[in-house]
Structure formats: C-alpha cells, structure tokens
Amino acid sequence: MRVEFRIEKRLGDFKLSAVGSLERGLTCIFGHNGAGKTTLMKILAGLMQPDAGELKYLGVESKIYIGDFYVPPDAWGLDVVLAGRSRFSSLPVNNLDVEKAKRYAELAGALEFLKRKWHTLSGGQKRRLIIAAALAAEADLTLLDELLEGMHPNWRGEVARLLRETGGIVAVTSHQIDVVDCCDYVVVMDGGVVKWSGAAGEFDKSTLGGSCYK
Amino acid sequence: MWLFFLAAFLFFAHLAWGPAGWDMYVIENVRLPRALGALTTGVALSLTGLLLQTVFRNPLADPYVLGISTTAMLTSLAMYMLWRFVGLPYLGFFVGSLIGALGVTLLLLWVARRATLLVVLLLGVFLSFAAGAAINFLLLTLPPEELGYIYLALQGSFAAFPPGLGWAVAASVAILALVTAFVARWISAYIHGEEAAAGLGVNVKLVNLAVVAIASALTALAVASVGPVGFLGLAAPHIGRWIAGSHRLDRAMPHTVAVGVMLALGADLLMRLALPRDVPITALLSLVGVPVAVYYLWRYARGV
Q: Which one of A23, A130, A166, A193 is most buried, by most CB atoms within 10 A?
C-alpha cells in the first residue's frame, strides 16, 4: 500500500508544488498556516483536482478525508460516528453499521457520548467521536486535517496507536511539533513545497528553524 | 412501529367516520380521495421538509417557508391558463407546478453555496410574498365562474385532491420516497456539510441531483393536487427526529413520514368533524407548526 504524488496547484497567489509519498503507518504533515497542508490533503482525497502532475494510489481501494466537520448542535453522538460509514453504501445505515459504530466508539473512548447531544459535549469529547467516525470508515487511506491539535499528549498517543492499528495509510496535519513523537513518518511543508520527508526517527526538530517549532 | 399503526388507524378513521355514516358511495367518492390526499401530501411535504433541512443545514427550511410551494402554485396557475388554449389545462397545472418548484429549488441551492443561511431563508420568504401577490393579480384574468374550484386549490385543501388522477399522484410520491431511501445514507452525511460528505466517500454530484429532483417533484405533486400546504414540512421533520433519536435522514425518515401523515390526517379529521365547514388546512396545521417554529427560532437566537 502506497500513495505517490507529484502535483502542482495554484490557488490565487499561492502555489503548491509537492513531491513525495505516503506509506502504511502514521504520517504527520507539519507546516505553518498557509504552508499547503490542507490543499495537499484535499488533492490526495480527490476533493480538489491538481493543475498538473500525477497521483498514484498503489493498492489503495478506499480513502476518506475529515477536515472541516460541521455537526448540528442537537445531533446525537451516534449520528457523527455513523457518518464514517457513508462510503459503504447509499442505502440507510443498518444494524451492522450501528454495531461497528459502537465498537469504534468504544475504542476511541466515546461509547458514553453516543447518546449525548453534540452541544452538551466538550471539545475533547467531540474529538473522540470524530476519531471514532474516522476509524469506522475502515479506509485504506485516512486523511485527518488538524484533528490531533489541542489534544492531551497521553490521549494523542492513544489515538496515534489506534490510527496505526487500522493497518492502512494514515496522514494527519499539525502545526504542533510535539505530535512528532507519535508519528512513523514526517513530512514538513513550507511555502507550498515539501521541505523534508522521511522516517520520524531520523527527523531532527532543529532542522525546521522556524521560531514556532522551538 | 406504533407510529405506522397510529397513521393507519387515522386513515381508516378518516374513511369510516363522518356525518353520512358508513356509506360505501360516500366512502369511495368523498372520503377516500380526501384521505388519500392527506396521506400523499403528508408523505410528500414531510419528506421534502426533511430533505431541505438536511441539505440546507437549516432547521427552518420547508417548501412553504422557502416559497417553493407558492411559486409552484403561481407557475401552475399560469400554465393552467396557457394550456387551456390547447385543451389540456390539468396537465398544464402539473407541468407548471413542477417548473416552478424546480426553478426555486435550484435558485435557493445556488444561493446557498454563495451566501449564509439567513440570506437563503429571507430570499425564500420574499419569493413566497412575490408569488402570492402575483397569484392574486393572475386571478383577475380568470372568469368569475371558474374561481370556485381554483380558489379551493389555492387555499390548500385535501378536498381538492383529484379522485382519478389522485392514484397516479400517490404512486409517484411513493416512488419518490423509495428513491430517497436508496440514497438516504449519502444524503444523511450532508448534515456535516457537502465537502465533509464528499470526504467521507459520498457521491455528491449524484446526491445534489437527486435532492433537487426529489424535493421539487414532491412539492410540485403536493401543490398541484391539493394546493400549497404550510408547516407540515416544517414541523414533521423536527418531531420525527426527536422520536427517532437521530439527526440523520436515513434513520429519521420513517418517523418523519409517519408523523407527517398523522398530522395531515389528524388535522383533516378534526376539520371534517369539528368545524362547520372547511378552512384552509394550513390554518389547522399551523396550530401545531407555529409553536415548533418559534421554539427553534428561540434556540437559534440563543446560539444553542
């Protein structure tokens, strides 16, 4: 399983020109705001078409992307996790989907939030439900945009382990460098280009330079 | 499940109960079309309300509030008058209704991509006023002796449901409801936004097409057969979601449809039995609909 990309995309003044690959495991994509992380993710997810270049999905049958995720304030927790089952069919969700939703909610520590209304949940509890939705999608390629931000470090490690255990390719974006301890691979983006990429073990935080990473 | 029993009970109560007692002739020719009209409209409008509320992510969306019904009424009336010249007034009525409903639904969805919910809602309300005003002027051109039946349809009444053609309308609504069920899971993901749905693997092009076609066809059928009926599409989805315990269209759809049917049959039964003569059905339905709308408006204003 592997994704290879060599793409170019122009959005107004901004130009993305990214080359790289994603492997099985957890890849963390770091960069400042406006570095091109989300644009790259959306192109990998197929939500945006690149102007030029090529994308290869080797052995990747299914993919999901979770970024901006609105939830009506009076929706229930279970509704959110069930959204992860969207790709399997267009027919109404069935008992199997509900069972899977419950199992993944339990893994993500969100079982007790399934019957709660969205607006009664805290930020961290909401995050767990969205993670459960991402897991419930059981996709080969899971792209999560800024989902690990502001998460307690212990819990972030737990989520990273869950994501790795899906056995697929998982990529998360972040601008918090302390996430790096949870990753298998690291991609650093700046000004629309990939500055560095490789195994997390070989990553030297000081190579980034930028003050916000120190 | 009990919802469907209750709806079925109301349907038979509607058939069996009335001043003429148990009279097969009256049942077949008066009560059955009317009960079928209530059933069909209940399904069509509650489902449209649920679709629009899901796709617009707006708890106040409803074909009547958004001016889809009134505009469909206007265009159907206009087409009725045009097609009289070729001798097919009734077909013109249905075609006109569909054109109006489709036009407004497309316009509102187009605006929804470029403006906020408030703008969409206000535009719908403005359209409703404009169409309502235009209807009044259009009626001036009709000879007075034709106004009787048209007036009934303009007010929105299940008594206007056409006996023969009604079965075709009911069958079309049933088919549209079935089609909705086939894409229900994908439409449900729209509560998180269209791009979020696409990210989760939903074919958004197909869903957008299905929603426009289904919502406008259902509204058009309801408007052409019984006239514009308000608040059914607004209240039923809210009550349906509460009972279902889910905000998802696929899980709340059966409950919403059952509630819509119950509201329509119940209101019409009440009108037939308790009132000296017919009033527009919206008047009775509003007794239920207005408090629901006010409750949601209050919550929206408080930002809950």
A: A130
Of B113, B58, B202, B177, give the one whose Cα is nearest residue A83: B202
By CB atoms closer than 10 A (0-12, 13-18, 19+), residue A139 is buried
- Please count the other Cβ atoms lying within 10 Å of the Cβ belonging to residue B92: 23
pLDDT greater than 50 at residue A213: no
CB contacts of A79 in chain B (<8 Å) are 188, 191, 246-248, 251
DSSP string of B208-224, one letter each residue: HHHHHHHHHHHHHHHHH
Tokens of B235: 């209240």
Across the interface, whether the CB atoms of A83 and B253 are under 8 A apart is answered: no
The neighbour count for residue B126, using CB atoms within 10 Å, is: 11
Task: Return the pLDDT at B168.
Answer: 92
Per-residue tokens: B79? 């087409």
In the prediction, which pLDDT does A207 show?
Answer: 61
* Identity of the amino acid at B1: M
Residues of chain A in contact with residue B203, where contact means CB-CB under 8 angstroms, are 90
H helices of B29-67, where?
32-55
Q: What is the ipTM of this complex?
A: 0.89
Output B85 or A152, whichever has higher pLDDT.
Answer: A152
Residues of chain B contacting A, Cβ within 8 Å:
57, 59, 181-186, 188-189, 191-193, 195-203, 245-248, 250-251, 253, 299, 304
For chain A, the average pLDDT equals: 89
CA B203, B205, B209, B212 dihedral sign is positive
pLDDT the model gives residue A208: 60
List, run by run, the mean pLDDT of 10-residue segments along chain B (304 residues): 82 78 77 91 96 91 90 88 72 87 93 87 92 89 76 81 88 96 96 94 94 94 90 89 91 94 88 82 80 72 62
Per-residue pLDDT reduced to its tens digit, B33-57: 889 999 999 999 999 999 999 999 8
Report the distance separating Cα A130 and Cα A104, nearest Å: 10
On whether any CB of chain B is under 8 Å from the CB of A86, the answer is: yes
What domains, with CATH codes, occur in chain B? 2-302 (1.10.3470.10)
Phi, psi of B252 (to 5 degrees): -95, -5
Cα atoms in the Cβ-side hemisphere of radius 13 Å centred on B107: 17
Read off the tokens for B16: 């069996």
Pick the CATH number of A1-62+140-214 from 3.40.50.300, 1.20.1300.10, 2.30.30.140, 1.10.10.10: 3.40.50.300
Q: Do B191 and A90 touch (CB under 8 A)?
A: no
Q: What are phi and psi of B34, to 5 degrees?
A: -70, -45
